[in-house]
Amino acid sequence: MAELLMARKSESHELLEAREALRMSGELAGLQLDSDPIYEKWILSGKPLARSRTLVCSPDGASTSVLWDCTCGSFYWHYRQDEAVLFLSGDACLLEENGREHRFAAGDFAFFPAGSVVKWRVDNYVRKIAFLREPMWRFAVPAVTFWNKVMRKLGLSRHTAWTRISLRS
Question: CA 112 to CA 45: how far, in whole Å?
Fold first, then answer.
């Protein structure tokens, strides 16, 4: 199984920041999400309904933050990108092949490298923010950075600046 990094609530600096994110999650609750169906082949049981909304996308399209939720069901998830997750509400169980379960709830973090395949069970509902990043070889980063800068200067970039949704009135 893919390497799984998880942190439970504690008093560390990162988790204090996460508490602030959780506080803001109430403001995220009002955002309209669009249907984002799970591939039928991945569904194991139930009829999970997934929805999502892109919150932020980097100018090069390599990094994205997504608000995602899902109703009850069991399914496989194939991670095409590196994904760091902060669970906001509800809960979900990661099911290992040996039968061991890992429950994730509000305030929990997880990281899934690109290429991971994970079996999930959502008993009722789960909501999370996912931070997605295209995996890239280290030696390619300077070249991609240079290319994106040139494309922006020429006005040929898909994005000219970070896009965002303001959570403040």
Answer: 23
Angle at 87 between CA 52 and CA 113, to 5 degrees: 80
The CATH superfamily assigned to 5-153 is Jelly Rolls (2.60.120.10)
CB 150 within 8 A of CB 40: no
Q: What is the β-pairing status of strands 117-133 and 50-57? A: unpaired
pLDDT digits over 128-158, tens only? Answer: 999 998 877 667 667 766 776 777 677 765 5
Please list the alpha-helical segments (H only) found in 29-162. 141-153
- Buried b or exposed e, range 141-157, using 16+ CB within 10 angstroms: eeeeeeebeebbeeeeb
Residue count of the chain, please give it: 169
CA–CA separation, 29 and 20 (whole Å): 15
pLDDT of amino acid 140: 66
The β-bridge partners of 73 are 122
pTM: 0.68
> pLDDT at position 9, please?
39
